[in-house]
Amino acid sequence: QNSLPINIAIMSLIVIGGLGFQVSSELINKKSIKKLSVHGKLVLIMSSLLIVGGAFIFFLIEHGNSFTLGGEGAYSKVIQSLFQSVVTRTAGFYSVNIGKLRDTSVVLMIILMFIGGSPGSTAGGLKTTTFGVLFASTIATIRGEENVVIFKKKIPNATIQKALALVMISIFLVIGISFVLTLTEVNNFLDILFEVTSAYATVGLTRGITPGLTDIGKLIITLTMYIGRIGPLTMAFAFGKASKSSKLDFPDANISVG
Question: Does 31 have pLDDT greater than 80?
């Protein structure tokens, strides 16, 4: 738990594996962050924010919890908070008792697992770039800007639509599967949601309920892992019927939103 070299080694491997092969290749070949593509810059910034932000919030929540970080020194609390923030987004290791976490920390870990790593990496989840694109789109909408711009580059509407579709499909899948498991299992909803998100993002963390799941529950979790690993959009494109391109254009419709 408190060995700095071991923690740094494990966290470094996890971060590198979660960046994606494209970003790793760019870092090796271009050797300058300024020369990276927009994709590479977005991956590095989002990954850094999630790691540091996740660790800081985890520390604030758990530093007084006697079952997790409460009995540790300041140095150990910082290291374990950083470690838990890193591993939650892909690796599934843990240095604290996951079953004794406060509910707020559980929600935080669910969010981090749901976002996951980056495209083209060994990590699962929604992906950092998807979250980054939607965040930038939200900011642009609030500011009343017509285009979504990241690092002085315009993001195509098709990319934003794919990101939004991925988020909506992922939310429906995770919530829907969790709802089904509440009918087959006796565990509380938060533990089930944690389990489903962990499976969907192929993280591997559990609050200890996996061995007690019914056979149906274990089968559902297994299928969730496959869906998460293959990707919901990939499966949707594989099983869906591609529509033929149409030359017709339709008038705009005014719909009140929000």
Answer: no
Amino acid code (one letter) for 208: G
Q: How far apart are the first and last CA of the chain?
A: 47
* 127, 133, 136, 142 alpha-carbon torsion, rounded to 10°: -110
Calculate mean pLDDT across residues 201-229.
93
For 146-156, what is the mean pLDDT?
93
Ranges of H-type helices in the chain: 4-19, 21-30, 38-62, 74-88, 103-115, 128-143, 157-184, 189-200, 215-230, 232-239
Q: How far apart are CA 213 and CA 210, in angstroms?
A: 5
For residues 172-201, one letter each, b for 16 or more C-beta atoms within 10 angstroms of the residue's C-beta and e for the rest, the string is ebbeebbeebeeebebeeebbbbbbbbbbb
pLDDT value of residue 257: 75
Tokens of 42: 């977005």
User: Average of pLDDT values for 130-147?
Assistant: 94
Which residues, other chains included, contact 122 with Cβ-Cβ below 8 Å and sequence gap of 6+?
Answer: 17, 18, 90
CA distances, 151 to each of 19, 23, 35, 142 (Å): 19, 16, 12, 18
Number of Cβ atoms within 10 Å of the Cβ of 243: 6
Portion of the chain with pLDDT greater than 70, in percent: 95
Specify the higher pLDDT residue, 88 or 239.
Answer: 88
What is the CB neighbour count within 10 angstroms for residue 221? 21
Mean pLDDT of 202-226: 93
Query: Tell me, what's the pLDDT at 241?
Result: 60
Sequence letter at residue 21 = F
| Residue 239: count of CB within 10 angstroms of its CB | 7
Distances, alpha carbon 55 to alpha carbons 6, 16, 17, 77, 163, in Å: 18, 18, 19, 10, 26
